[in-house]
Structures are given as C-alpha cells and as structure tokens.
C-alpha cells in the first residue's frame, strides 16, 4: 500500500467550508475512480493548513491521484483559496493498524 500526503498552507479561511464541501462532493468521487484507490482523508488543521491523505495499491496510483487533485483545483477555480502549491509527500506504507469503526 502506498500513501500520498498533500499539505496546503495559507488556505483562505473564508473559503474553508467551500473547500470541504467541494472536496466531499466532487473530488472524492473522482479520486475513488483512480485505479488502486483504497481511501482518502481530509484534515483541517489550525493556522490555515489543510492536509489530505490518500491510500492506493501502487506508487503509480498514488502519483496519479496527485495529478487528479491538481487538475481538480484548477477546474474548480480554487487557486485563490489554495494560493500555495501543496507540499507533497508519499511513499510505501510500512506499518499500519486500523480498528473497526462503527458509524451510527
């Protein structure tokens, strides 16, 4: 399993709700169609930082998700909401542990 982490800094705080909604409604469906898709998380941190974490079967699939996300930012005209290119980190997941989540 491979992951890709995109860290966006200096996010326009007045547009965070818009970003979250668009990511949920339009980005996640696109990413879930990328071959090898295993999961995606969007994390809202303090100080104008939003990070995303995606999990894929192969490094090539993870790389493809970065291209898809970059295209999505342009297509959704979010360059002013996300003024800086993301800091992208990725690699093979070498240790993992999950528990069963129960949703009501």
* Succession of helices and strands: EHEEHE
Report the helical percentage.
Answer: 25-40%
Overall 3D form? globular
Whole-number mean pLDDT: 93
Q: Give the total of beta strands.
A: 4
**Radius of gyration of CA atoms, rounded to a whole number:** 14 Å
Return the CATH architecture.
Answer: 2-Layer Sandwich
Descriptive overview:
The chain has a four-stranded antiparallel sheet with strand order 2-3-1-4, with helices on one face. A hairpin with a 5-residue loop joins strand 2 and strand 3 (50-56). It has a single domain (2-92), classed as Alpha-Beta Plaits. The chain contains two helices and four strands, in the order βαββαβ. It has 104 residues and is an alpha+beta fold.
